[in-house]
Design brief:
280 residues; mainly beta; 20-stranded antiparallel beta barrel
Length: 280
């Protein structure tokens, strides 16, 4: 998470936006309430999701080794019962991930390999019987940007791949999905401003024809303040969105009010989100 400062915890609550006497106010709580805690190294250690009425929906806990590598993840349900347990084991340039559903047999294992720069170069997926179900290989450029993600089936046959391109500033400018025959499945292109904020993303279909466009405008803190989505004809697909922020002295937003409008309509308040930060 891209927070500024040494965050100890953050609590996010979202409300419906209501207009009373010309003033935008908080209405009923909506969506989930999120609370996340971090250690002094910035590692997420506890993550809780609550219903709007405050009832716990899910809790996740994370543990790390002395090198800040995650070694364990536990997921608990609303009753505090453990239902998912991941363990990670590191041996030299390899990382083993074990996943288990409580009250069931061992579900799967992933084996990762890394190069001497810490880039993931391979991922092998195993089922509960120890058989390979998929292999992923990754290639990087000299700046450690991922250029290719290639997936192979359990029998070693090529399944699909994703290719990436970057500009001279390291911004991700293109992502292309290909099938096993090298035929295009989908493609996205990205355009940036001088501050490396993404200001336009363009999506293409498998025949390379235009599908949709997303256009963004950012503020001085690099948060999106306006966005709109257009179809291939340049017609608005969803309502335009506008966002107004309030920040704390670290530069983290503590209040976000979103507005929507369709074409020539006026901006209508939609939601208000509050974040309460505690710092180390």
């Amino acid at each position: 998470m891209d927070f500024k400062g040494k965050v100890k915890s953050v609590l996010k609550t979202t409300y419906e936006a209501e207009v009373k006497f010309g003033i935008v106010e908080k209405g009923a709580k909506i969506y989930a309430i999120w609370q996340i805690e971090f250690d002094e190294s910035g590692n997420k250690i506890i993550e809780c999701q609550f219903e709007p009425d405050g009832k716990l929906f899910e809790k996740r806990t994370y543990s790390y080794n002395d090198f800040n590598h995650r070694i364990e993840k536990k997921v608990f349900d609303e009753n505090g019962e453990l239902y998912l347990h991941n363990r990670y084991k590191y041996i030299e340039d390899e990382c083993y991930k074990y996943e288990k559903l409580e009250k069931e047999e061992f579900r799967l294992k992933n084996l990762f390999k890394f190069d001497n720069l810490g880039n993931k170069t391979e991922k092998v997926e195993y089922n509960s019987n120890g058989k390979i179900i998929g292999v992923y290989k990754y290639k990087y450029d000299k700046k450690n940007n991922c250029l290719e993600e290639i997936r192979y089936k359990h029998d070693g046959q090529l399944d699909c791949m994703v290719k990436h391109k970057y500009d001279k500033n390291g911004n991700h400018i293109q992502e292309k999905g290909l099938d096993s025959n090298g035929k295009l499945e989908n493609k996205s292109k990205y355009k940036y401003d001088n501050d490396s904020n993404c200001i336009k993303s363009t999506n293409y279909k498998s025949d390379n024809s235009l599908d949709s466009m997303h256009i963004y405008k950012h503020d001085f803190n690099r948060n999106v303040v306006k966005s709109k989505t257009l179809n291939s004809q340049g017609v608005l697909i969803y309502a335009k969105q506008k966002f107004e922020y309030k920040y704390d002295h670290y530069g983290n937003w503590t209040s976000l009010t979103s507005f929507r409008k369709n074409n020539n309509e006026v901006w209508t308040p939609h939601e208000i989100a509050d974040r309460i930060f505690e710092y180390h």
